[in-house]
Specification:
By secondary structure, this protein is α/β, with parallel strands linked by helices. The protein has 17 helices and 22 strands. The chain folds into four domains: about 130 residues, Rossmann fold (3-Layer(aba) Sandwich); about 180 residues, NAD(P)-binding Rossmann-like Domain (Rossmann fold, 3-Layer(aba) Sandwich), CATH 3.40.50; about 120 residues, 60s Ribosomal Protein L30, Chain: A; about 80 residues, Alpha-Beta Plaits. The longest helix is centred in the middle third of the chain and has 22 residues. The chain binds nicotinamide-adenine-dinucleotide and 3-phosphoglyceric acid (3PG). Nicotinamide-adenine-dinucleotide binds next to helix 5 and helix 7.
Length: about 525
């Protein structure tokens, strides 16, 4: 088996390359490439490991003919075109916790830098000025910190600020009142935060809702003398309005680690009094870089070598505990999806995934993704569990998930139903020995079949002599039968045959089968 090949395209702790090699991947470390240079080489790689410098744009993704996974050694993935990656079936992963403490500490460090004007005091002192009376700071104890965004990093900042005896108020629409109580913060609306905070720190991703959250208007609503720290993403603050507010003295200090345009080698804010800048250093400690490098390499290698998925942003994650239990269910789900996909034509406005009995205890998302992948792969080879939900949505398919905890005829069951122009059609399967996928119902007819390899599907009238005739036809054409699975609605009624064969049935043989007495439909299937 050829080894998966990974490109590390941003500066990363050497542990990442070591882990990739240890886990059986080939790895190249090539940093500082221009987009054109990256485009020229990306086709060779199965995995791309990045930090924030590499931009995984639509153009790069289009050129990435073999790419299966993009791993971000860090948190923010605004440098990855996730819809483009999803459409191409590429998993995008990040390491959501590896650098949170370090970044929170940087935010606290910048708050202290502003409170005591540390950078200016250092410059002045080392210039031999000893300006003891110029630098009058403020105490943080007793002051109010306004957190915009109270997720992983925001909550660590809150914890440290409470340790400094600050009062913490937080604006985060997704923060539950219970979590706010646990964190020891007061949940407030943005306007209240702006009105009350002596310090403001930002900890949200950059989205349409958070872009310019500290706009000119909102900066005007802040308390006079406020100090602002942004260690999250450039674009959360209107930089021109911030410059005006610093110049007017309304804002007493601002510290930015991140900028609208990076690298920020020149900027109107540079040189403004009470302004502190760092070059996107939030995650830059030895500890955080080792954490994210180890984690991203483990996660990516897991996916490339074993198909394990952790911290993916565009597909359901499978924990190490869940994976072994879910694996046979996903195989069953994919086969059922594929069977329905092969047996139905025309537009499918709705697909329903119904679990019964033991299957209901599992995370249904990977099962749904596997059904959709099996179903849509009939139309395109490039469909996988990552892009299948996305493609289903794009094709206007409603996806329903239904659970019935009570067991029916089987202790565990997955039923896949599609709405077609001729009505609802469904197939169902179970697991024998908790591990072997079996089809148990096909369009309302009970059967028992293993869906594997090349198969032939026949719908016929139940009548004596049919089995002999079909056996003879296949035998005369040198096609060996593996399994022979029959089912019927009632004696003499509609019957189905699903037979596995050792070689694909040629079109001419399918034609001859179609002409046998009582045969209504014949199809070759493949699993
Ligand atoms: N400077 C750096 O080097 C550095 C390092 C790590 C992370 N970051 C950035 O910090 C940010 C936060 O990271 P995190 O790990 O805490 O993320 P997180 O997802 O854990 O938390 C983000 C929080 O923002 C909240 N949020 C979303 N929309 C909001 C809105 N409109 N208003 C207010 N709150 C909103 C979410 O509810 C969530 O609680 C990310 O953008 C990340 O990229 C920067
Ligand atoms: O989102 C992140 O993790 C930070 O912005 C860190 O970025 P970096 O890996 O480029 O330092």
């Amino acid at each position: 088996m050829t080894k998966p090949k990974v490109l590390i395209s941003d500066k990363m702790d050497p542990n990442a390359a070591a882990i990739f090699r240890m886990r059986g991947c080939e790895v190249d470390e090539i940093t500082g490439k221009t987009p054109e240079e990256l485009k020229a080489i990306i086709g060779q790689y199965d995995g791309l490991a990045i930090r924030s410098s590499t931009k995984a744009t639509q153009e790069i993704i289009d050129a990435a003919t073999n790419l299966k996974v993009i791993g971000r050694a860090g948190i923010g993935v605004d440098n990855v075109d996730i819809p483009a990656a999803s459409a191409k079936g590429i998993v995008v992963m990040n390491t959501p916790f590896g650098n949170s403490i370090t970044t929170a500490e940087h935010a606290i460090a910048l708050m202290f830098a502003l409170a005591r004007q540390l950078p200016e005091a250092d410059l002045s002192t080392q210039a031999g000025k000893w300006e003891k009376n110029r630098f009058m700071g403020v105490e943080m104890t007793g002051k109010t910190l306004g957190l915009i965004g109270a997720g992983n990093i925001g909550s660590i900042v809150a914890d440290r600020a409470l340790g400094l005896r600050m009062k913490v108020v937080a604006f985060d629409p997704f923060l539950s009142p219970e979590r706010a109580v646990d964190m020891g913060v007061e949940k407030v609306e943005l306007d209240q935060l702006l009105d009350r905070a002596d310090f403001i720190t930002l900890h949200t991703p950059l989205t349409d809702q958070t872009r310019n959250i500290l706009s000119k208007e909102n900066l005007a609503k802040t308390k006079k003398g406020v100090r602002i720290v942004n260690c999250a993403r450039g674009g959360l603050i209107d930089e021109a309005a911030l410059k005006d507010a610093l110049d007017s003295g309304h804002v007493a200090g601002a510290a930015l680690d991140v900028f609208v345009t990076e690298p920020a080698k020149e900027h109107p804010l540079f040189g403004t009094p009470n302004f502190v800048a760092t070059p996107h250093l939030g995650a830059s400690t030895n500890e955080a870089q080792v954490n994210v490098a180890l984690q991203v390499a483990e996660q990516m290698a897991d996916y490339l070598v074993n198909g394990g998925v952790t911290n993916a942003l565009n597909m359901p994650s499978l924990s190490a505990e869940e994976a072994p239990k879910l694996k046979p269910y996903m195989a069953l789900a994919e086969k059922l999806g594929s069977l329905v996909g092969q047996l139905t034509t025309g537009s499918i406005p709705r697909i329903s995934i119904h679990t019964e009995g033991a299957a209901t205890e599992l995370n249904i998302k990977p099962i749904t993704a596997a059904v959709l992948a099996g179903f849509l792969r009939v139309q395109s080879d490039s469909v996988n569990m990552v892009n299948a939900p996305f493609l289903a949505k794009e094709r206007g398919m409603e996806v329903r998930e239904i659970k019935t905890e009570r067991e029916g005829d089987y202790h565990t069951l997955i039923r896949v139903s599609v709405k077609t122009e001729d009505g609802e059609r469904s197939v169902a399967g179970t697991l024998f020995n908790n591990s072997e996928p079996r089809l148990v119902q096909l369009f309302g007819i009970k059967v028992e079949a293993e869906l594997a390899g090349p198969m032939m599907y026949i719908v016929n009238e139940d009548a004596p002599g049919f089995i002999g005739r079909i056996g003879t036809l296949l035998g005369e054409n040198g096609i060996n039968i593996g399994t022979f699975n029959l089912g019927r609605r009632e004696a003499g009624g509609e019957a189905v045959l699903l037979t596995s064969v050792d070689s694909a049935v040629p079109a001419a043989v399918l034609d001859q089968a179609c002409k046998l007495p009582g045969v209504k439909r014949v199809m070759a299937l493949a699993f």
